[in-house]
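Intended use. Records like the one below are meant for learning the mapping from a protein sequence to its folded structure. Do not use them to infer anything beyond what is encoded.
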Amino acid sequence: MIDIINHINDALWGYIIIIVLVGCGVWFTIRSRFVQFRMFGEMLRLLTDSSVRPTGHEKHISSFQAFAVSLASRVGTGNLAGVATAIAVGGPGAVFWMWVMALFGAATAFVESTLGQLFKRHHSDSFIGGPAYYIERGLHCRWMAVLFAVLITATFGLANNSVQSNTICGAMEGAFGWSPATTGVVLTVFTLVIVFGGIQRIARVSSVLVPVMALGYFVLAVVVVVMNIEHVPHVFKVIIDSAFGLEQAVGGTVGAAIMNGVKRGLFSNEAGEGSAPNAAATAAVSHPVKQGLIQSLGVFTDTLLVCSCTAFIILISGLYDNPELNGIALTQAALEGEVGAWGPVFVAVAIFLFAYSSIIGNYYYGEANVRFMSRDPRAVTLFRVCSGGVMVMFGALVSLDTVWSIIDLCMALLTACNLVAIILLGKYAFRLLDDYRRQKRQGIKSPVFHRSQLPELEHDLECWE
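Structure written out for the chain above:
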């Protein structure tokens, strides 16, 4: 069964997804006039933006909390185990293509998250939205919206959580000798406690965990790089040579570097996958573009910062060509070689925080789409048990190759569905961006959007009175 899934993955990733994903990133970058670079300062300013759209019965989810929920999902296994897997399979050149994906993917993230905000809806205790909602309201295509809801529920709420759990258990076994079954049981209990608390609890936990874990890991990586500063030029040379070198082209490894760089880049930063718009929609902001910019910054934070930390640690260690090391074991071995025996322990703690925050962030993406498909509260309860319980335990007990093969297939199908939607609806994100820039030029510090500004959509926009 896994062999069949791998053949399908090779076909999808080798031809369709990579071409469309990169093409969309380039097109959105040009069409938005390089929004991810020109408005980088505005992205940073918006992290502390306190101007919100007045709400009625919804509880307030700030821009930063929505950013933290999405970053909780982004910053996880992909940053430690995913980068290591990309390097082990595709060589150091995969790192270069992860960077490329981040630079262009930030524009894709801007478009999809702006649309998530634009078409969000009122919910019992917060706003709710995402691709399923903008497909139904923007494209008026219910079957496609349901298809996306099913795919993202399977991808994030189920398959992705098994990857996170698998990596946590592997790290704990390597550092402390704990059995995967024991770790899986403890992790399952912790997860169920959080997910039964809803988006408010998820947002609070994420807003604490994400900054702490990202900053701690970044500081350690900087220390390792400074300790080995003389090797940094060689690291860049290895990355570039592997991405474009003649020897690699003849050997066919350039294609492997591109494919694995794009796959692991997407798994890590999720730009174009349709996940982050679910978190972006929960924020109470005065203009949809604000969350588009915030989520674009999340791509940079994830790949250019955290993923690069892991890549440099591994490449400095020189262990990346050891065929016996892959995934989180490669990251742990590389760090142990640089900082000593406590390195694997640090990675185990870091991966627990990274992957655990991803589990609860992934869970919310699934819940938002279960609520889209069904208003029956029993459906949400069943999903909580399956996502936070069954799949977390499943990931603890199966092999690394099994969970990665399943998630690759789910990601490919999910991304294809979302890209079709944002290509068709992207024009609204660009009109909103033009409006935002116009208001800023007029000296308005906090631009405001009203649904009357898009008269053809006025009846489809529920939250912008």
